[in-house]
TrEMBL record:
Domain of life: Bacteria
One GO process term, biological-process aspect: tyrosine biosynthetic process
One Pfam family named in its UniProt record: PDH_N
Pathway annotation: Amino-acid biosynthesis; L-tyrosine biosynthesis; (4-hydroxyphenyl)pyruvate from prephenate (NAD(+) route): step 1/1
Protein known as: Prephenate dehydrogenase
UniProt keyword annotations, A-Z: Amino-acid biosynthesis, Aromatic amino acid biosynthesis, NAD, Oxidoreductase, Signal, Tyrosine biosynthesis
Length: 362
């Protein structure tokens, strides 16, 4: 791949353009808002000048509702040898493109499983896709050269290719991406009118659950409008669990011993099923999740403190597998939780104590 055009210079389009440009591909940028394309170009993502001739690959990075029309226009103009889109739904756009009479042999639907709460070119980074799954949805009519160019795109972005059927992909992202967004927003919505005293009690748990609730509502309306059926099916299952959980909680208020016992059993059932589901979420490098041991360190809000902790861990020869920070409300301090291999926890604890760190129970 020597040349590419990116149509749609938001977060995903600009990030792909930055990654390609960094690998020596000449990237042309286009957007319905010329200022957005110019912004992406100023970041080093390519040029906002149109290509002089046919490019190797066209990457359509527009909202799902506009994917088919944008692709049909680009294919009709002969912009590229191959065409991909990066929308978060795959089945609908392909069917719409076929209905428009476009040549679909030169097209393959793709979806990089990466993103941020922030949108737009200023949020883009060349490393956004590194190590992340990038779904490809070829069909029997997909040209081999087109598939190879799509695979090259994934490789140049340092992502991991995953081949799926388009409709199976849409059902999968309904479960692992689209529904979590709605559930996160629903929980966060409870905070809007909450008493200030309650809000001040927010800890890491509520921060974890509501992190993605900061996402752009307009963008998510477009995404969910393109995949409503599968999302509704997942939510229906959650709604059934919610109803059963509400009933179980009410049973715990009962004066009847058997009802209370049944309520406790219902709560335990949903919590245990949650444990089982959480254990299936891939861990580091996509492997099965590992049970890490947590070493918790009290840290002051001062420049260089995190770097000092990591350096001290390095001196102990310990690899930090994961890290999280729990901020102390109203204080210039926090609790850094270092997740390490259980066999390394004792050595890390001893090293940090020797270097004056205040350790806490995680």
């Amino acid at each position: 791949m020597r040349t590419a055009v990116v149509i749609g210079t938001g977060l995903i389009g600009t990030s792909a353009a930055l990654a390609l440009a960094a690998r020596g591909v000449r990237v042309h940028l286009a957007d319905h808002d010329p200022d957005t394309a110019r912004t992406a170009a100023s970041l080093g993502a390519g040029t906002d000048e149109p290509p002089a001739g046919k490019v190797d690959l066209a990457i359509v990075a527009v909202p799902p509702a506009h994917v088919a029309a944008t692709l049909a226009d680009a294919i009709g103009r002969g912009v590229a040898r191959a065409y991909v889109d990066v929308a978060s739904v795959k089945g609908g756009p392909r069917r719409e493109l076929a209905a428009l009479g476009a040549d679909t042999t030169a097209y393959i639907g793709t979806h990089p499983m990466a993103g941020k709460e922030r949108s737009g070119p200023l949020a883009a980074t060349a490393d956004l896709f590194e190590g992340r799954p990038w779904v490809l949805t070829p069909t029997r009519e997909t040209d081999h050269e087109v598939l190879n160019l799509a695979l090259e795109l994934v490789a140049l972005c340092n992502a991991v290719p995953v081949v799926m059927d388009a409709d199976a992909h849409d059902r999968a992202v309904a479960l692992v991406s689209h529904t979590p967004q709605l559930v996160s927003s629903m929980v966060a919505a409870r905070l809007e009118e909450a008493d200030e005293t309650a809000v001040r009690l927010c800890g890491q748990g509520i921060r974890d659950v509501t992190r993605i609730a900061a996402s752009d509502p307009r963008m998510w309306v477009e995404i969910l409008s393109a995949n409503p059926g599968p999302v509704a099916e997942v939510l229906a299952g959650i709604a059934a669990d919610l109803r059963a959980t509400v009933d179980a909680l009410h049973a715990l208020e009962s004066a009847d011993v058997d009802e209370r016992r049944g309520g406790a059993g219902g709560i335990e059932d949903v919590l245990r099923r949650g444990n089982a589901g959480r254990e299936r979420v891939p861990g580091k490098h996509g492997a099965a999740p590992m049970a890490y041991e947590t070493v918790a360190v009290l840290i002051s809000d001062q420049p260089g403190e995190l770097a000092r902790i990591f350096a001290d861990a390095g001196r102990a020869g310990v690899n930090i597998e994961d890290v999280r920070i729990e901020h102390a409300t109203g204080q210039q301090a926090g609790l850094v939780q270092l997740m390490v291999d259980p066999s390394a926890a004792a050595a890390l604890t001893a090293e940090l104590r020797d270097r004056g760190w205040a350790l806490r129970r995680p």
